[in-house]
Amino acid sequence: MTATTTAGRQIATPLSGKALAAEIRRRTTERVTALAAAGTITKLVVVTATDDESSIWYVRSIAKAAAAVGIDCDIADLGPTASPSHIRHTLRDLSQDPTVHGIILQTPLPSGVQLSDLAGDIAPAKDVDGANPASLGRCAAGQPGFAPATAEAVLELLDHHAVELEGRHVAIVGRSIVVGTPVALLLLDRRATVTVCHSRTTALESHTSRADIVVVAVGKPGLVSAGHVAPGAVVIDVGTTPSENGGLLGDVDVAEVERVAGALTPVPGGVGPVTTALLLSHTADAAER
User: Fold this and answer.
1) Within the chain, which residue ranges are assigned CATH 3.40.50.10860?
2) Would the annotation count 222 as a binding residue?
3) Are strands 193-197 and 169-173 parallel, antiparallel or unpaired?
4) Which residues does 121 contact at the CB level (< 8 Å), separation at least 6?
5) Residue 245 has what pLDDT?
6) Distances in whole angstroms, Cα of residue 124 to Cα of each of 44, 101, 129, 131, 260
7) Phi/psi of residue 216, each to 5°?
8) What is residue 1's predicted lDDT score, i.e. its pLDDT?
9) Closest Cα to residue 74, out of 91, 54, 53, 60?
10) What is d(CA 104, CA 182) in angstroms, rounded to the nearest whole number?
11) In which residue ranges of the chain is pLDDT below 50?
């Protein structure tokens, strides 16, 4: 992808997710309206057990976005001291509730409580953020199921901006089961050649600087600089670290990378809005099924 020219210098073309997110929300609204006309009120429940302000803000933004497309969204606030058994029973009850179509277990969780220990209690049919290991297994096997919304958002954004994937070399920085690993699986299904880098990878630049596409999702602001990126490469920044002034910081050093890359997602406004829109689309999928 060719960079644009501003004030006499080359800068990476911004890969905004706002228009794509708006289109996904529009289609979801139509589907939710049709479900309501047929007698089904689409319902999403977000389970929280934290007093983290950024998490609380994010959950409220999901609820607001859900309301805008006609989805009934409940927030099950269990409190920051909720026990694993309390959270587990809540997830199991919601999984058995026929009026609930989508379930999200929001992180962070109380100290000592791991998402990986509880995600299996979300019914795969309602696991709209792909947290249950069974959902990841379905993703790996190419079977119907919900991929983690952030991982799917990466591919949706690349498709929206007509970035070719088949046969391309993609370097992924980060191997979490929320983003890095499922992105790798989804890209392999699209016949890309994938390199997954992580905290034990030596000479990171030697891997990323040879890639046509770089996806970085580790939560370390400024990790990827100009030396990590090949001229003209497409860079997808999934990082969202809160800044001191209340904003968000990505994992890419924008001032450096935008002078080398052909295209770069902004933070915020890139992967984030698409992720939220896909959570709502997945909930409509679950209700239709």
Assistant:
1) 39-122
2) no
3) parallel
4) 88, 91, 92, 95
5) 86
6) 14, 11, 10, 9, 41
7) -120, 125
8) 66
9) 60
10) 17
11) 8
CA atoms within 13 A on the CB side of 289: 17
Integer Cα distance of 287 and 248 in angstroms = 33
Predicted local distance difference test score (pLDDT) of residue 273: 96
**Number of Cβ atoms within 10 Å of the Cβ of 191:** 10
What pLDDT, on the 0 to 100 scale, is given for residue 9? 60
Q: Which of 284, 279, 269, 237 is CA-nearest to residue 20?
A: 269
Give Cβ neighbours of residue 88 (< 8 Å, ≥ 6 apart).
118, 121
The whole-angstrom separation of Cα 15 and Cα 243 is 22
- What's the pLDDT at 142? 81
232 is in an annotated binding site: no
Q: pLDDT tens for residues 88-104? A: 999 999 999 999 999 99
**Is residue 210 a known part of a binding site?**
no
pLDDT at residue 2 in the model: 59
CATH 3.40.50.720 domain extents, the chain: 149-272
Q: Return the amino acid letter for 20.
A: L
DSSP 269: T
Write out the DSSP string of 40-66.
---EEEEEE----HHHHHHHHHHHHHH
Q: How far is CA 88 from the centre of its chain?
A: 23
Which residues partner with 133 through β-bridges? none
240 marked among binding-site residues = yes
The size of the chain, in residues, is 289
Query: What's the CATH number for 149-272?
Result: 3.40.50.720
Query: So what's the pLDDT on residue 3?
Result: 64
- The single-letter code of the amino acid at 69 is V
Nearest to 277 by CA among 35, 14, 22: 22
Q: What is the CATH topology of the domain spanning 39-122?
A: Rossmann fold (3.40.50)
